[in-house]
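[worker-b] picked up task from shared queue
[worker-b] task type: protein-ligand structure
[worker-b] ligand name resolved to NAP; SMILES cross-checked against name lookup, match
[worker-b] sequence length check passed
[worker-b] input payload:
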Amino acid sequence: MTQPTFDATTSAEEVVDGLDLTGKTYLVTGCNSGLGYETARVLGARGARLIGLARTRDKAAQALAKLGVAGDAVACDLGDLDSVRAAVDAVRQLAPLDALIANAGIMALPELQQIQGFEAQFYVNHMGHFVLVTGLLDRLTDAGRVVMLSSGAHRYAKAGLELDNLSGERDYDPWRMYGRSKLANILFARSLAARFGASGRTAVALHPGVIETNLGRHVPNKEAMYERLKHMLKTVGQGAATQVYAAVHPAMAGVTGVYLSDCAVAETLPEGQDDALAAALWERSEAIAAGASA
Ligand SMILES: NC(=O)c1ccc[n+]([C@@H]2O[C@H](COP(=O)([O-])OP(=O)(O)OC[C@H]3O[C@@H](n4cnc5c(N)ncnc54)[C@H](OP(=O)(O)O)[C@@H]3O)[C@@H](O)[C@H]2O)c1
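[worker-b] inference finished, payload out:
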């Protein structure tokens, strides 16, 4: 097909214009807010069935009800691996997944917070999704897609993944640790793509743009931050465009192992293309999921 001409101004609604998603099933984490909510709205409006995940089942159910989209609400607290495993079990009872959109996240916690001894952004943004996605790989359809929400802020991971500092205790910095978690999202997608090979299943990571959502809630003086960034702010509709493009657009069929921004392939930090680092992260994540400490 001819490549669509999408760019930074394209909205998620424009991405799905003319597409019939009847019979498709999409899982979205963080379906109750910001980009996840908009993604659920736009896909549901095109006839897709949604599996909406949120910290609590109530939050997910309320979001789907408010949107009036067909779907299932599932509790999944990404900071609690038992909750994630229960979500995996619940999702396994539902229809196979045409795409799994790992969208939920937290950003720039001002003080070090730890979960099970691990820095919280790494744990929620990466580990929670690692356990969720790896638990559902065999529930992807033959052409199923994994879409990892990363960020241009992965560039703040100046010291790379810091696998020797997963506790976050050495020289804690809110943005460097957020950046590290988002670099982990890129490397996880890269590992998945390598594992999928030419199977037809795909995995990509992406930067949605800069959008004023609840994500900024932990940033002191966030109004000043958004004011400073106002020349590049996207609307929520524009912000959800790249993940919707990655998850459902025919032009993305078979496209795997890439990083997207503004509905186009973009460059990551060199560390985002480091296969040895991706393999080390996978191995460490498996160990953490099995109970290893920081
Ligand atoms: N907005 C931006 O400018 C921007 C830029 C680059 C990347 N991103 C990425 O885009 C994604 C979506 O962000 P957004 O802007 O839509 O933010 P948002 O409005 O704050 O939405 C984040 C979602 O993640 C959920 N979440 C947070 N912690 C969770 C946990 N422990 N378990 C389960 N769910 C949890 C939130 O649930 P609650 O409502 O219950 O907290 C919410 O549904 C994130 O991964 C973010 O890193 C956003």
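[worker-b] attaching auto-annotations
[worker-b] The CA atoms of residues 30 and 104 lie 4 Å apart.
[worker-b] releasing lock
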